[in-house]
Design a protein that fits this description.
3 helices, Neuraminidase
C-alpha cells in the first residue's frame, strides 16, 4: 500500500474499530524525570519553627498564613492538632515572635502510626484549600473517616465526613465540585457542594506490587485535568515487613480526566513524591519526601529515645522544577527534612517539613539534632 493510501485509509480503520466496540489507546508514553546534579542558586531561610508536624499552608487575610498542624502524635497528646494563623507582626520575615501565632482550630485529633507501619508517621490535620466561597480543612486518618471543616474568618464548623483518608483536596470552579485524594484507599474522590463524595478513580498497583498511595493533587486548568502524585507504598503492604521496603524511583505523577476518571501516567522515576504545584503551562514544582527508607521503629518509649531516621532518611528530600514535556528537572533545593506541602507565596516558595515525633533525636546533616517541624522559604529565579 502506498503512503498516501495508508493515510487515507487510517481514519476509516479507526472508525470501524470504534463502531465494533474496540478501544484504542493513543496515550503517549510516560516521561521519565531526569534531574540535574547542581541545585539552583536560591535564597533559603526558615520562617517558622517549633510547629508540631506542619502540613498544608494557605494565604489568609492581610498577609497572614494559615498552617495545618497534625500534632505531636504522642500518647496523652491525642488532641494536639490545630489550624494556626501566623502573622508577621514585627515584619522580620518570620513567624516566631511572641503573639504571632493564633489557633483558629485547636484540639484536633493526632495519632502516630509507628506501631503499625514501623515509621515515625503522624496523622491528623492535613489539607487546607479555598474554593466555593469557603476554606476547607481536613482531619485525615489512616483507618477511620476524615472530617472536613469549613473555615470562615474566626468561625469553624464541621462540613462533612468522608469514608476515606482525605490528605489533599482542590476546588474546581468550572464544575463547582471538590476533588480529593485518599491515600489509605488509593482513590480519587469527587465531592459535591453538599459534601457528598463519590469515587471516580481507583488507582492500580505499581510494578512491584506496591499500593500506589495518592498523596497530593493539583488542577491543571489549561488542559482540564487533575495531576496526582503517587507516593508508592511498601512492597510488603501497610503493616508487613519492616516498613522500609520501598522502591526508589517508583513514584509517579498521574493525569486524570475530571469527568471520566480515566488515568494516564505522566511522569515516572520520582522517589516518594508529595505535594505539587503548576507554574505556567509546562512546569511542575514537585517535592520528594526522602531518597530512602531505613531504621524501622515502633512508637514505644525506647524506640523514640534512640537516635534514628525512623523509617525515612532524614534531610534527604528535594524540591524539583520539572518540564512536563521533556521530564528535565531543575534541582531547586536538596537536604529537606521530610517535606510534605508546598505554597507559592508571591516570590517565595514555602515548604513545610519535619514529619514525626517532635523532640525525638534524629541524624542531622552534621550530627544528632532534635526533630522539629518548620517552614522554609525559597526565593530566586524559578
Amino acid at each position: 500500500m502506498k503512503r498516501a493510501e495508508l493515510g487515507a485509509t487510517l481514519p476509516t480503520i479507526v472508525a470501524l474499530l470504534l463502531a465494533a466496540g474496540c478501544s484504542l489507546s493513543l496515550d503517549r508514553r510516560p516521561t521519565a524525570v531526569t534531574v540535574q546534579t547542581e541545585p539552583a542558586a536560591l535564597a533559603r531561610r526558615t520562617v517558622a519553627r517549633g510547629l508540631a508536624n506542619p502540613r498544608a499552608m494557605l494565604r489568609g487575610d492581610g498577609g497572614s498564613l494559615l498552617v495545618a498542624t497534625a500534632g505531636t502524635g504522642r500518647p496523652g497528646e491525642e488532641t494536639s492538632g490545630a489550624v494556626l494563623i501566623l502573622n508577621d507582626l514585627d515584619n522580620d520575615g518570620r513567624y516566631d515572635s511572641q503573639g504571632e501565632r493564633h489557633p483558629l482550630l485547636k484540639d484536633a485529633p493526632s495519632v502516630n502510626i509507628a506501631g503499625l507501619v514501623h515509621r515515625d508517621e503522624v496523622f491528623g490535620m492535613a489539607a487546607l484549600a479555598r474554593g466555593g466561597g469557603r476554606v476547607l480543612a481536613s482531619v485525615a486518618f489512616f483507618d477511620r473517616p476524615s472530617s472536613l471543616w469549613s473555615v470562615a474568618g474566626d468561625s469553624v464548623e464541621l462540613w462533612t465526613e468522608v469514608e476515606a483518608n482525605v490528605n489533599d483536596l482542590v476546588f474546581d470552579n468550572a464544575r463547582g465540585v471538590w476533588f480529593a485524594v485518599s491515600s489509605s484507599t488509593d482513590q480519587l474522590l469527587r465531592l459535591d457542594d453538599k459534601g457528598r463524595a463519590e469515587v471516580i478513580t481507583d488507582f492500580v498497583e505499581l510494578e512491584n506490587g506496591q499500593d500506589p498511595v495518592p498523596g497530593y493533587l493539583t488542577l491543571d486548568h489549561d488542559n482540564d485535568r487533575l495531576l496526582v502524585s503517587l507516593f508508592s507504598g511498601s512492597t510488603e503492604g501497610d503493616s508487613g515487613g519492616l516498613g522500609t521496603e520501598f522502591v526508589r524511583g517508583a513514584g509517579r505523577i498521574m493525569s486524570i480526566d475530571p469527568d471520566t476518571g480515566e488515568t494516564e501516567t505522566l511522569l515516572t522515576g520520582l522517589t516518594a513524591p508529595t505535594d505539587l504545584v503548576l507554574v505556567g503551562q509546562q512546569r511542575l514544582l514537585v517535592l520528594e519526601f526522602c531518597d530512602g527508607f531505613l531504621d524501622p521503629m515502633t512508637n514505644d518509649q525506647g524506640s523514640m529515645s534512640e537516635v534514628s531516621h525512623g523509617g525515612f532518611r532524614r534531610f534527604s528530600g528535594r524540591l524539583l522544577d520539572v518540564d512536563l514535556a521533556t521530564g528535565a528537572a531543575r534541582l531547586l533545593a536538596e537536604g529537606l527534612d521530610t517535606p510534605t506541602n508546598l505554597l507559592l507565596a508571591g516570590s517565595d516558595v514555602l515548604v513545610s517539613e519535619g514529619m514525626g515525633t517532635p523532640g525525638r533525636p534524629i541524624p542531622g546533616p552534621e550530627g544528632e539534632v532534635r526533630l522539629d517541624g518548620f517552614i522554609e522559604a525559597f526565593s530566586g529565579r524559578f
